[in-house]
Amino acid sequence: MSTHPRDESDAAAAAPAAKRSRLESVDEFYETAVAVAREAGATIRAAFDKNKSVMLKSASTDLVTETDQKVEAFIINSFKDKFPSHKFIGEESVAAGIQCELTDDPTWIIDPLDGTTNFVHRFPFVAVSIALVIDKAPVIGIVYNCILDEMYTAVRGRGAFKNGVQITTSQQTAVNTALIGTEFGSNRKDEVLATILENMRSLAGEPNAAHSIRCLGSAALNLCAVASGAMDAYFEFGIHVWDIAAGILILQEANGVVRNPDGTELDIMARRILGACTPQLADEITSRIKNIVTPRD
Ligand code: LIP
C-alpha cells in the first residue's frame, strides 16, 4: 500500500500518451521501491539485536556485515526481476569490485544499510536508502529507518513525506540559531580529522556559535532530519553517492537546498554534500568551513 499521495493523477489523465505512460511508470517504480525497502527493513530489524560478524572494508572505521550484503542482493534482485533494463549502483556491489558508473539510463542507487556502524552497535539510526536516478537526477527517493519505522519518501515534483505526512524544512537562516549535522566519516587520517574537527569548532564555537552539532551516523538520515525540520543543515566530506542519492531528493522536495559544501552546484559523484533548510544558512556554513579533497566515486 502506497504512503505517497498521487497528487498528479489529474495531470496524468490530461497528459499526452507518452507523458502519461512515463507518469504511470514512475508510480510503479515508486510502489515497488517502497515495498522493497519495507521488506529489506524487516530483514535488518530481525538482525538488529543479534550478534553480528563484522568485517572491515577500507579501514577499521569502515564496517560491513553479512546483513548489508544479503539485503543489497535482495534489493537488486527484486528490481532486476521487475525492471530488467535498469542499471544499478550498490554500495556492497562496488565494494565487491563492480564499477561505479552513472549514465543517463534509469539507475537504482542503493545503500542497503546506511549507518552500518550504528547497526553494529545497536544505535537505532539505520536506514535502507533507495534512489531511482534518470538522466543523472534523482526521480524517486526512499529512506526507511527500519528500527524506528520512519519511512521518508519523495517523487520529483510531488513533495516529501514521512510516514505519509508531508514534511518541510525549518526556516533558520543563521548558524547561531541552527542545529547542524556532520560526521567523522571513515577516513581518520590525521590531516583529514584535523579539518573535520576544525570545521566543527568553526561552527560550534564563538562568535556566532551554532545551537549544537549532531552526528546521526547515517548520511541518508541526516538529510531526512534536515528535510523534516529536526536539524537545520548537514554537511559531510567522504560520503558516497549511495549514501546521499535518495536523501538529496527528499530534502529538495521538502524545500531545502543541496550543494557542494563550497557553494557550487551539487555534483553527486564528488563525495561531498551540504544540505540546508535555507540558502542563507547554506551560504554561512560554506563561508565557515574548509574543503576536504576526496577522489570521486
Ligand atoms: C556511512 C555514512 C555516514 C558516514 C560513514 C558511512 P554506511 O555509510 O552514511 O554518513 O559518516 O562513514 O559512510 O557505510 O554506514 O553505509
Please provide the ordered H/E string of secondary-structure elements.
HHEEHEHEHEEEEEEHEHEHEEH
Q: Architecture of the largest domain, according to CATH? A: 2-Layer Sandwich
Looking at this structure, what is the CATH superfamily of the largest domain? Fructose-1,6-Bisphosphatase, subunit A, domain 1
Distance between the termini: 35 Å
Proportion of residues in extended strands = 15-25%
CATH topology of the largest domain: Fructose-1,6-Bisphosphatase, Chain A, domain 1
Total beta strand runs: 14
Quick structural summary:
By secondary structure, the protein is α+β, with helices and mostly antiparallel strands.
Question: Please, could you describe this protein's structure?
Answer:
The protein is α+β, with helices and mostly antiparallel strands. It folds into 2 domains: 10-166, Fructose-1,6-Bisphosphatase, Chain A, domain 1 (2-Layer Sandwich), CATH 3.30.540; 175-288, D-Maltodextrin-Binding Protein, domain 2 (3-Layer(aba) Sandwich), CATH 3.40.190. It has 9 helices and 14 strands. Helix 2 (17-48) runs antiparallel to helix 3. The chain starts with 8 loop residues before the first helix and ends in a 9-residue tail after the last helix. Residues 91, 111, 114-116, 183, 185-186, 218-219, 236, 239, 243 line the site of L-MYO-inositol-1-phosphate.
